[in-house]
Design goal:
The complex is a heterodimer of chains A (about 250) and B (about 325). Chain A is about 75% helix and about 0% strand. Chain A is an all-alpha fold and about 250 residues long. Chain A has one domain. Chain A is globular, with a radius of gyration of 19 Å. The two termini of chain A are about 20 Å apart. Chain B is built from twelve helices and 14 strands. The chains are: A mainly alpha (about 250), B alpha/beta (about 325). Chains A and B meet through helix 1 and helix 4 of A and helix 3 of B.
Chain lengths: ~250, ~325
């Protein structure tokens, strides 16, 4: 059974890639959406409350982290859609490795997140943004972002399995936005009312955004958050990965 | 037992307070089509989900193709095909992509998966539409593709859970033809349905299920015989005389359909009943349009077995 784990996971990943090929517009929209947010907050709404120096240097790492957080929605939608269509029943009634359904989902979502980072950083570069740190630090920052995305992914799978129906996703979507914006992605916590600033500083996403700013060498970036940006996602994974796997196994209850 | 494809003994499954299966027993001979007939909520889908390893039973011994569905789920999965109530397909992918995906997951390897997909598309008359996204398929086409997907490895046992629910008559006929063409190949088919006609058309043997139990079992003819065999139908010219006729005719267990000016009753001795009815009608001066002897319909059998006889009479 386990002999097929790798092949089956790869087959399931390819299934997602084939879907992209079928719906390129959907994929492009998903990739362009964060760019739109970046341009909107960078130029339209503008400013950045309490941020000194170039707002761009503050905003781009924040947008990268925010994009990783919003990835949770995409994961949830995909998982609930498969459950609802009954195609998961077919997978489960076949002699394939049980975990491949979830592994394929993770691989495809991570791949899409890498693409989203490339696009967003590319647009940033086109707008004149540059990292001020070393290449190694840059890659480290990308690693932290993907680690955070990976934690969001398993939260997404778990919530989707709990919610079950696509209609329930909307409820979660509405919650993801405040959680995403209740972070330091767009503005410094110092500029917010005291209690709100505290909430924002506790948000795991804020640690990731701050650590990325630090590694990019953004002027005025707070240091010392890299460890929190590693430990928080790992802690979330330690909780949600087993929960999601158990929940998936419980589909047979 | 090599000649038994499915064995179910004392299967139980509850959801909270509700017993979906309450000690269900079933035995399906290899190479036959077995119909599981019952109303909504009788436990048909729960049974299929347990047999296809999607759901764990709370109790009971359940074997499919010689393997226990709980302890040897993987061995069972190697030998079954499942056509669930809802199309289990990737809607965004094309028909061919779907079949290749499932072929790969059955570990056929890329080349054989591709060849098999081609064969099945051809066989189910979908070769022209293999590239189209399943989303754009008609109901009948989707069902045929779904059926093709459950036949990738020529399973020993095939489960069809209400295969034609929601299809128009044409789609239904298409699926029936496909199922019939399978039976020749030696596959054992377990089919659930709410449509008596469907069970009548496709199944060699039928289990009638109600409230999570099998309440009757047999061939179509045996089931019909269980409810008192033949029936007599009398159609009157004047619906107003139906009441008089019921009182006067030498029949018991009469059901009345005012709309069709029809009364119907089970009979034991065909000729005696027929001559008795004709004589009684003539003596009372009640004009009949038609008097006929016939076998009971499966509907009557079913309603009789589930104890809902009275509902028919009240509705009439």
């Amino acid at each position: 059974m386990t002999a097929h784990a790798l092949t089956d996971s790869w087959t399931m990943t390819r299934r997602e890639l084939a879907r992209w090929g079928r719906q390129p517009v959907q994929l492009v929209v998903n990739l362009v959406f964060p760019v739109m947010l970046l341009l909107m907050f960078g130029y339209l709404v503008g400013g950045g409350r309490g941020v000194g120096g170039a707002y761009r240097d503050y905003l781009i790492p924040g947008m990268l982290a925010l994009t990783m957080a919003f990835g949770l929605e995409g994961t949830m939608i995909a998982v609930t859609r498969d459950l609802d269509k009954g195609v998961v029943d077919r997978f489960r009634s076949m002699p394939m490795a049980n975990g491949a359904v979830l592994v394929g989902r993770s691989a495809a979502d991570m791949l899409q997140s890498v693409m989203a980072l490339v696009v967003l950083i590319g647009v940033g570069a086109a707008l004149g943004w540059r990292t001020h740190g070393t290449a190694a630090a840059f890659l480290g920052a990308v690693g932290l972002l993907l680690l955070f995305r990976f934690a969001m992914l398993w939260i997404g799978i778990h919530l989707a399995l709990v919610a079950g129906k696509p209609e329930m996703v909307q409820a979660v979507q509405i919650l993801v936005w405040p959680v995403g914006f209740l972070s330091n992605a767009l503005a410094l916590p110092d500029s917010m009312p005291g209690w709100l600033g505290t909430v924002v500083e506790w948000n795991p996403m804020s640690h990731t955004a701050t650590a990325v700013r630090d590694l990019f060498g953004s002027p005025g970036a707070e240091s010392g958050h890299v460890w929190a940006a590693i430990v928080w996602p790992l802690a979330l994974l330690a909780v949600f990965f087993p929960l999601a796997v158990r929940r998936f196994g419980r589909l047979s209850r | 037992m090599a000649d038994t494809a499915i064995t179910v003994e004392g299967a139980e499954k509850r959801y909270g307070d509700k017993k979906a299966l309450a000690g269900l027993d079933l035995r399906v001979a290899r190479g036959t089509v077995h119909g599981v007939l019952g109303p909504n909520g009788a436990g048909k889908t729960t049974l299929v989900r347990i047999l296809s390893t999607l759901l764990r039973p709370d109790a009971g011994r359940i074997e499919v193709a010689g393997h226990d569905v709980v302890r040897e789920a993987y061995a069972v999965r190697l030998r079954i095909g499942l056509l669930g109530q809802h199309a289990a397909l990737d809607e965004e992918l094309g028909g061919r992509q779907n079949l290749e995906l499932f072929g790969r997951l059955h570990h056929l390897g890329a080349r054989r998966a591709r060849a098999r997909a081609g064969e099945l598309l051809e066989r189910f008359d979908l070769a022209d539409t293999g590239r189209k996204a399943v989303r754009q398929y008609s109901g009948g086409m989707r069902r045929r593709l779904d059926l093709a997907a459950s036949l990738i490895t020529e399973p020993e046992v095939l489960f069809l859970d209400e295969p034609t629910t929601g299809l128009d008559p044409r789609g239904r006929a298409e699926v029936w033809d496909s199922v019939r063409s399978l039976v020749g190949g030696g596959t054992t088919v377990l089919l659930t349905t709410q449509y008596l006609e469907e069970a009548d058309q496709l199944a060699d043997c039928i289990s009638v299920v109600d409230a999570g139990r099998v309440i009757a079992e047999g061939t179509v003819d045996e089931l019909k015989a269980q409810t008192g065999g033949d029936r007599i139908d009398v159609v009157l010219r004047d619906a107003g005389q139906l009441g008089d006729a019921v009182a006067l005719l030498p029949l018991a267990g009469v059901s009345v359909d005012t709309h069709r000016r029809l009364l119907s009753a089970p009979v034991t001795d065909r000729m005696e009943a027929l001559s008795g009815v004709v004589r009684a009608l003539q003596q009372a001066g009640i004009e009949a349009e038609d008097v006929a002897l016939r076998r009971p319909t499966l509907d009557e059998v079913f309603l009789h077995l589930t104890g809902d006889d009275r509902r028919v009479r009240e509705a009439a």
